[in-house]
Design a protein that fits this description.
This protein has about 550 residues and is an alpha/beta fold. It contains 15 helices and 18 strands. Helix 12 runs parallel beside helix 15. The two termini are about 35 Å apart.
């Protein structure tokens, strides 16, 4: 294999592409993306210029939460392929110079997992129940949940079971859907099992792991009520003693995982999904003896406003640099509305996670312009970056999916008031003049599991490949420059714009400047600068509003 970056710390400035496998490419014509589809598109990813791909869960699952309800961590769901297909994908990715990260879901299993089935059938006092969090209910006859915790997907975080003899039993905790019972990480068997799972995949050539809900594994002794903290689900509270988010005890678990990863001749890599409240807390996950990197959700949720973006950049670099870790930058993923649609509306004075945080109709032309500018800004920052599949095509959030087709558990658990995340998970458009846009490799078969809008016709990879000014070719050019320019990737930056300036301008040594104009008016670029790349056509040395340029000094 010939990796573009051969050093052991390749992850410090890697650009990693998220493959939401159900929606990336369908290799067998059943309307659902699979491993065969990913293998067929490896040349596309290599040609895009990314360093690695991260695959969302591919394990056997009832799909109550898109595969994040895992029934068997050592196998592949038949919808996606086989273990042999997975082995071939890793091998072929390596041949293309791409590393492979997979998703591990350690906070909870599926209710279909053998452990949970054993816990239900074992009866009161069964040792199998120690692997999960079972508690007696409150009130007469234990009819009320053990505490006031809420599910991230809506409703209570507890479900009561019926014992094998038909009598009412205890309640089990599920911070997400009822089909996702939380594991008890105080149990030594749980800890040993997940270290074994890591070795299983590392031994098969996987280069790293993305850790789902990394901040949620440990719960406070006694499971106290949340009270006034209720409602801050998954956002990160900043509270130093939240009963189930970001507890100090979680770091011991990840120190053990780091020992597992470092035991390999080529050490394996971790990235944490950790909603930690503020950068200093996030930095604790990426200390030298714990995980390698963590998603930067403050950056993802920042509105398209210069003051917010600059503050997040400064705080992230400072906090993570203090522990020797690189920052990461991400604009979209499979859990949030696509940033074209977020940027297409008036920007608030606060974080943006969902379209419910915004007001006004979408101006997709404006959103696309800002997304192009954001791409160049993001890829110029020091550290690593994560791309969500389809952002390189300029895809927007599909906001008008028919209600009867919505599958996200949030839609059902919210009483049909929150449409959930399906709008950012619509299958990719690859080619052709209409749906399914080449999503299935044979051009026929079952329609995609979620319908694609007809308006995506000019956004297919095939159409954009032929257009030098397309979003796809902007990403390709930016990633090629990022790979070749000595100033880009890991390192530092120096601002040369004022803190209150709507223009973000910084210098990176040697010989590079990034200028992002978030104002509505054109600004004059510095004299004697060579334009390496710009997100929009420049006007006689002037940088239009909502545009970013890369300059050689």
């Amino acid at each position: 294999m010939a990796f573009a970056r051969t050093t052991a710390d390749w992850w410090r400035d890697a650009v990693i592409y998220e493959v939401y496998i159900r929606s990336f490419a369908d290799g067998d014509g059943d309307g659902i993306g699979d491993i065969a589809g990913v293998r067929q598109r490896l040349p596309y990813l290599a040609g895009l210029g990314v360093d690695a791909l991260w695959l969302t869960p591919w394990y056997p699952s009832p799909m109550a939460d898109g595969g994040y309800d895992v029934a068997d961590y050592r196998d592949i769901d038949p919808v996606f392929g086989t273990l042999e297909d997975a082995r071939a994908l890793v091998e072929e990715a390596h041949e293309h110079g791409l590393r492979v990260l997979i998703d591990i879901v350690p906070n909870h299993t599926s209710s279909a997992h053998a452990w949970f089935r054993e816990a239900l059938s074992g009866g009161p006092g069964s040792p199998a129940r120690r692997r999960y969090i079972f508690r007696p209910g409150r009130g007469p006859g234990g009819e009320l949940p053990p505490n006031d915790w809420k599910s991230v997907f809506g409703g209570p975080a507890w479900t009561r079971i019926t014992e094998p003899d038909g009598s009412p039993g205890p309640w089990y905790l599920h911070l997400f859907a009822p089909e996702q019972p939380d594991l008890n990480w105080d149990d030594t068997e749980v800890r040993a099992e997940f270290e074994s799972i890591l070795r299983f995949w590392f031994d098969r050539g996987v280069d790293g792991v993305r850790i789902d809900v990394a901040h949620g594994l440990v719960k406070a002794p006694g499971l106290p009520d949340i009270g006034s903290l209720d409602g801050k689900l998954l956002q990160g509270t900043g509270d130093l003693d939240h009963p189930h988010w970001d507890r100090e005890e979680v770091h011991e678990i990840f120190q053990g995982w780091r020992t597992v990863a470092d035991a390999y001749d080529v050490p394996r890599t971790f990235v944490a999904e950790a909603w930690a409240g503020f950068p200093e807390r996030l930095a604790r996950y990426v200390r030298p003896d714990e995980l390698h990197t963590a998603f930067n959700f403050d950056y993802l949720m920042a509105p398209w406003r210069a003051d917010h973006l600059r503050r997040v950049v400064d705080e992230s670099i400072t906090a993570l640099g203090a522990v020797g870790a690189p920052a990461t930058w991400v604009l979209s993923n499979h859990d949030v509305a696509r940033h074209v649609s977020r940027y297409a509306r008036p920007q608030p004075d606060g974080p943006v996670r969902s379209l419910a945080d915004l007001r006004g109709p979408a101006d997709l032309r404006l959103g696309t312009r800002r997304a192009r500018a954001a791409a160049l800004l993001t890829l110029a920052l020091p550290g690593g970056a994560y791309l969500y599949q389809g952002e390189e095509l300029g895809l927007w959030e599909v906001e008008d999916l028919p209600e009867e087709l919505l599958q996200d558990p949030t839609w059902h658990r919210s009483g049909h008031t929150d449409r959930g995340r399906d709008g950012c998970r619509v299958p990719l458009p690859w080619s052709g003049d209409g749906p399914p846009f080449g999503f299935s490799s044979d051009g026929a078969g079952t329609p995609p599991w979620l319908p694609q809008p007809d308006a995506w016709k000019p956004l297919t990879a095939e159409a954009q490949d032929r257009d030098p000014s397309s979003m796809l070719n902007l990403y390709r050019s930016a990633l090629a420059l990022r790979r070749s320019h000595p100033a880009l990737g890991d390192g530092t930056l120096t601002w040369d714009s004022a803190p209150d300036d709507p223009v973000l301008s910084f210098v990176r040594a040697p010989g590079f400047r990034c200028v992002a104009n978030l104002s509505g008016d054109p600004v004059t670029l510095p004299a004697h600068s060579e334009v390496l790349l710009s997100s929009e056509e420049l006007e006689a040395g002037r940088l239009p509003g909502d545009t970013t340029a890369w300059l050689a000094l």
